[in-house]
Design goal:
The radius of gyration is 29 Å and the shape is elongated. It contains nine helices and ten strands. The chain is of the alpha+beta class and about 260 residues long. Strands 4, 5, 6, 7, 8 and 10 form a six-stranded mixed β-sheet that branches.
Length: about 260
């Protein structure tokens, strides 16, 4: 591009013919371009993440951002196709985890690489024991926590102690989850979503806090890792527990709609 109203910012003699995409300096020739790169340690490559104000944003910026997103997509796709991801060792590990879970009467399903749950899953099996990647969600406080390496023989009550026990919980966590810590333990319910159901028929299983994580997972379908929802009986929830909730709704007949927002 030719700039008639600007002079070269390197030699200050000739009219500018080029503008650096990186530092926006004007140059008149290839020699001055090389000099300015050397003097300013500039690589001449446009900073695709640099801030552009709304007043200065043009169609070229829009096109550039679009191409940048395409580049990101190609990079992510290349990473997903990396040989390590599809290596025999990785496939053997996933097969072993699914096989071990099947031996415990758990149907463990893994997602294709690229899915967030697949990338973040840290579940392992060592010395005849699962060490689960586990997510705890507290809907009433809009809080969630991720645990790693949770042994399968640990009870759910012990897993929840650092979060909702008024004595053993971390002070910061206790403050955030105070609605839980202030409630009696008998009011706490632990739910897990039932997989492979239609979106308009979402149901949950209620787990036993006094039993181990392994015992609670038996007979369940798990996609990558368990996600547990901790709710309170006294508070309303959109979650419906399989079994009793459905039976009550049927008995209510036309009045059943009143039960949709109540955790039964």
């Amino acid at each position: 591009m030719f700039f008639t109203s600007f002079r070269c910012e390197t030699c200050s003699k000739e009219e500018a013919k080029y503008r650096c995409p990186r530092c926006m300096k004007y140059s008149c020739s290839l020699l001055c371009v090389k000099k300015h790169k050397l003097a300013l340690s500039c690589n001449g490559v446009r900073d695709k993440t640099a801030f552009v104000s709304v007043n200065e944003f043009t169609d070229l910026n829009l096109l550039s951002d679009y191409r940048f997103l395409e580049d990101v997509g190609r990079t992510a796709d290349a990473a997903a196709r990396h040989c390590i991801v599809h290596s025999p060792a990785t496939k053997r590990l996933l097969y072993s985890l699914r096989n071990k879970a099947r031996g415990c009467n758990i149907e463990l399903k893994t997602l294709p690489i690229g899915f967030t749950k697949r990338r973040e899953n840290s579940t392992t099996f060592n010395f005849n024991k699962f060490y689960w990647h586990l997510k705890l969600i507290f809907p009433h406080c809009h809080a969630e926590y991720t645990l790693k390496g949770v042994p399968d023989d640990k009870t759910l009550a012990d897993i929840l102690k650092p979060y909702i026990d008024p004595v053993e919980s971390d002070p910061v966590v206790c403050q955030r989850l105070k609605i839980y810590t202030a409630s009696p333990q008998s009011d706490v319910r632990i739910l897990m979503k039932i997989e492979n159901r239609s979106r308009n028929s979402v149901r949950y299983n209620e787990l036993d806090a006094n039993r181990s994580l392994l015992d609670n997972l038996k007979g369940k379908v798990i996609i990558e890792y368990p996600t547990l929802f901790v709710v309170l009986k006294t508070l309303k929830s959109d979650m419906v527990v399989l079994g009793q909730g459905e039976d009550v709704n049927k008995k209510m007949g036309n009045c059943g709609s009143r039960k949709k927002n109540i955790l039964i």
